[in-house]
Predict the 3D structure of the following.
Amino acid sequence: MPDVIVTQRLTKYYDRRAVVDGLELRIAQGTVYGLLGRNGSGKSTAIKMMLGMVHPDRGRAELFGEEASRLRPQTRARIAYLAEGHPLYRWMTDGEAVRFARACSPTWNDVLAEQILDHFALARRAKIRRLSNGERAQVSLALAVSTEPELLILDDPTLGLDTVVRRDFLESLIQIIQRRGRTIFFSSHILGDVERVADRIGILVDGVLRVDCPTDHFKDSIRKVVLEFARTPPEFPDCPGLVSRRAVGRKLELVLVGYNDGHRELAESLQPASIEVIELNLEDAFIEYTRGPRRSLPILAGEPCDVQSDGIQGAA
């Protein structure tokens, strides 16, 4: 499959701080890619640079082989973008928003637009300013998808939605994903959503892409290891793959990438009373991997995992 999104050394500074630092991505056609990171990690800035809305200080971004800041109109027509917060013209009705979007899109699908609006039970004469956050998100999704985009980019699309509306939104997104050849790139802070939808994830930590691998591979690579002692826990030595170590009473909690026999032998050398190895879901793995205080993080980017001293990495 050809690459739909490519970034090379993509970097942006604000107030002398690298908000996005040397981002390198290749996202193939048909991929559903979830970009994760804590607040302020650079997700929205990275997306805006990919779309040509923010000019990078270094590096470049390409969509469909064209530089993001110089996309031809016919290439832009292949892309749809849902911005964080779903900004819409609030004085419009749902129907007026549809007519406005239709006039701007050469690939508009009226039948699809009606189907999505009906699916969400959205009244055509309802004023957007009177809609709930969830209803505005649904209108935004309808407007974006009805352009029949080959690439759909969403910036935290379920932010502020309640659990029921978020689930409905997500299930609709899954149906869209199943349309052949469509590529979806989205950021999110809700890890359960990402786990259900994304087949590949990236994790930004302080603007640096520390993880780029299949979703299941990330979960399988992170382990929490708990050593229990009869006394105050000793210091656990530095080793490849060590993300964090924390003493809690008589327990020593370790987070490790690529847990293996070498890690276990190192743990056994401290003579603990017990060793417990805990598998983590995506949310727990993300929290353990990104929360501070941190060492220099391993970078994860593929299968199998090659652990480096400065990060975690894996294959497509």
Q: What stands out?
A: The CA atoms of residues 224 and 255 lie 5 Å apart. The radius of gyration is 22 Å. Confidence is low (pLDDT under 50) at residues 303-312.
